[in-house]
Amino acid sequence: MTNNAAIVELSQTANKFRSSIVLQADNKYIDVKSILGLFTTLVGGHAYELHVHGPDADEAKKELGDVFAKHSLNVTIVD
User: Fold this and answer.
1) How many CB atoms lie within 10 A of CB 19?
2) Which residue has better confidence, 48 or 61?
3) How remote is the C-alpha of 68 from its chain's centroid?
4) Neighbouring C-beta atoms of residue 53, cutoff 10 Å
5) Domain at 4-78, CATH from 3.40.50.300, 3.30.1340.10, 1.10.1520.10, 1.10.10.60
6) How many CB atoms lie within 10 A of CB 59?
7) HPr domain: which residues (predicted)?
């Protein structure tokens, strides 16, 4: 199970950006800016895809990638 600190940090980081930031888990798409969405989706052992589109996408990908790595979450950042 993912810890609450990871969820809060991901959401806070995502909310710093104007870009659309969506996490894909299986067939579900979750807005990373939504803490509730993350709580119901981020469970250990899954592989995730992160989709970022918008004016500050490059910075958002880098910062969120760092947060995912810090919390040992398996994510692929999709270009």
Assistant:
1) 20
2) 61
3) 7
4) 11
5) 3.30.1340.10
6) 13
7) 9-69
What are the b/e assignments for 29-48, b being 16+ CB within 10 Å? ebebbebebbeebbeeeeeb
Render pLDDT for 4-26 as a digit per residue (tens, 0 to 9): 899 999 999 999 999 999 999 88
CB-CB contact of 22 with 29 (8 Å): yes
Q: Left (φ > 0), alpha (ψ -120 to 50) or beta: where does 14 sit?
A: alpha
What is the CB neighbour count within 10 angstroms for residue 78? Answer: 12
Q: What is the DSSP string of 36-76?
A: HHHHHH--TT-EEEEEEESTTHHHHHHHHHHHHHHTT-EEE
